Amino acid sequence: MKNMTIDIIKCTIEDLQTLQEISYQTFNETFKDQNSPENMTAYLDKAFNLNQLENELNNASSQFFFVYVNDAVAGYLKVNSDDAQSEEMGGESLEIERIYVKNEFKKQGLGKYLLNKAVEIAFDTDKEKIWLGVWEKNENAIAFYRKMGFVQSGAHSFYMGDEEQIDLIMIKTLD
Q1: Active site residue 145
Q2: Residue 96 has what pLDDT?
Q3: The CATH number of the domain where 123 resides is what?
Q4: Which of 66, 80, 118, 163 pairs as cysteine with 84 (C-beta 3.0–4.6 A)?
Q5: So what's the pLDDT on residue 175?
Q6: Could you say which residues of the chain have pLDDT below 70?
């Protein structure tokens, strides 16, 4: 962490291209080894095409943030409130839809920075809880979220191309 400058900056529509690039890169780095190339391509093309990302950036109930390390984009966070949430969780909840960090920047505490940013947003908007879905096979992420105070409350289906996968729903109540 020495000599490392970390900044979290909200994304705007001008960041669309960079958002697409980091979305593709981090998702691919995280999941390509456990999924078929066909399902990865199908998911990446659907979730991270420019029109989809532009719609998400323009949705007032969604926010994206880049985390920079020494002026390099190292990862990003996406949070959703109200009707932008991917599950019916109510107005008192904030969803963390995505926390992704490039492989080269992992193990530097950036996930915790991004998670803390989401908690800060939740407090600032008077939310009572924060929640997320995490792939049941992503053991590192599950361990991280448990360490950060999240508890599993359920599960839901997630489609990677034509393959149904299970995401664990994890919730943290804010005090």
Answers
A1: yes
A2: 98
A3: 3.40.630.30
A4: 80
A5: 82
A6: 1-2
Residue 62 sits in which domain range?
6-127
* Domains: count for the chain: 1
Q: Indicate the pTM of the whole model.
A: 0.94
**From 43, 76, 113, 145, the catalytic residue:** 145
3-state secondary structure the chain: CCCCCEEEEECCHHHHHHHHHHHHHHHHHHHHHHCCHHHHHHHHHHHCCHHHHHHHHHCCCEEEEEEEECCEEEEEEEEEEHHHCCCCCCCCEEEEEEEEECHHHCCCCHHHHHHHHHHHHHHHCCCCEEEEEEECCCHHHHHHHHHCCCEEEEEEEEEECCEEEEEEEEEEECC
> For 6-25, what is each residue's pLDDT tens digit?
999 999 999 999 999 999 99
Looking up tokens 């999941």 gives 31
